[in-house]
Amino acid sequence: MPDTKTHPTKTNVCFNWTRLVLSATLPMILGIFTIIFTLQQNSISSATREQDRLHATELRQQVIYDDYIHTISDLLLRTSFNRTNQHQLNHIGFKTVDVIQHLNHAQKRDVIFFLYSHELNRKTMPENQRVILSGADLTNVHFVQSTRTNCNLRNISLTYILAAKIVFDRCDINYAGFENAWLVGAKFINSLMQGVHFYKANLTGAVFHGGNLNKISFSHASLVNTRFSEINSGNFDFTNADLLHSDLTNKYLWSSGHTIVNTRLSNGSFSAISSSNLIANGGAENDCVAGRLRRWNPLSGHQPLDVYDTTRSETTILPAVNGKCYFRKITSSRMFQLVSHTSYSLLINAEMAYFNISAYMGCTIANRNNDHILIDMRCWNEYYAGNVCAKLRMSKNASGFQYQSTTGLIPKGTAHFRVWVETNILFPSKHNDSIVQACFVDDIKLFIFKKEN
């Protein structure tokens, strides 16, 4: 029988495959178009929302700025406003610090100009008539001289501000005060800078380019990685300043008439360390005329030692070691002196600072009833906490003045020294005793030095 089945031709097969592909492609194209359209719409919506958000932020910032200017201006115009009223000045300061964190960079700059124009943050005014902007956020704010902006901020006071990457470009900031300010990465470009104070300022990574810099105090400031270029400079105070990795070479420092004491240099070494005696009136000489203590404080509930003037006494039991006076007591007593010297903080925190404390001390009668005089020194941190780091005790086997001295490493973080003088006389002498028991001390000294290898 003949085969009645029909066989598809090549044309039919090709047509069927084409129809199949087309039928599948159309939904795919529509799907891709839908996805792209949706993404575009989402992108447009996001951009619109971001634009609306930025616009709302700008409006809010402008409202806050306008309200601030209006409020402070109204306060300044009131007859009740008094520049010596600390409560009113504090109100302006607190409000400014609070408002500034919500403003844009240009508005922050204008707030500073506003305060300056009303002489609220100028060093020419007494300190009790200035607004303190402690903690004010001036990060990335630019002060730039231009045809529209007169950047005259001479004598401005910007202590304790937080102003990383702040810029002063062609400004007059002569005699400005940046004490304790955070100025990391700041730029001072072609500006007038005579008599500027950067005491304890953090200027890490700052740039000083061009301009006239003269009689500037960098005392206790951090100048790590700081750069100086094309400047006319002289008479900088680098006392206890940190110049580590800065471009201030030793050749430049020693040839420009700068003050360099207790300074860490660019290569990590230290300059000459001050050899001053840190004890004030350690031999009672300053109190001879007055006959009373000035720099020594009695411990609450105790008597201090007396000032003994050998030239005014009818019978001089013991001559002074130095001068004509010393400290003396015939009963138990306590007194102390607080020595706060941060001028050595870099050396101390590098654990390279040593102390030497010494004195001449003793009692009239040796080895009597455990009578004695002692000196102890506590090394305290900035919060006035710490341990005893030195003790001086009299020799019990000898009478009269005996020299005592001790040396030790100053603990890292030490900011204060409390030097304590104590006499303990168990049974005070009677008037008819042939020899009066007394304990005494003279020529107390405290030095800080760098111990050489």
Give an account of the 3D structure.
- The chain has helices spanning 10-77, 86-100, 105-117, 250-255, 345-349, and strands at residues 142-144, 167-169, 187-189, 192-194, 207-209, 212-214, 227-229, 232-234, 297-298, 306-309, 325-329, 333-340, 353-363, 372-380, 386-393, 402-409, 416-424, 439-450.
- By secondary structure, it is an alpha/beta fold.
- Helix 1 runs antiparallel to helix 2.
- The chain is elongated and about 140 Å long.
Main beta-sheet strand count, sense and barrel state: 5 strands, parallel
Choose one word for the global shape. Answer: elongated
Order of helices and strands: HHHEEEEEEEEHEEEEHEEEEEE
Biggest sheet, strands in spatial order? 1-2-3-5-7
Strand content: 15-25%
End-to-end span in angstroms? 120 Å
If helices are DSSP runs of H or I spanning 4 or more residues, what is the number of helices? 5
Kindly report the average pLDDT value.
88
By DSSP, the count of extended strands is 18
- Structural class by SSE content: alpha/beta
Please estimate the helix content.
10-25%
What's the gyration radius in Å?
37 Å
Q: Note poorly predicted spans.
A: none
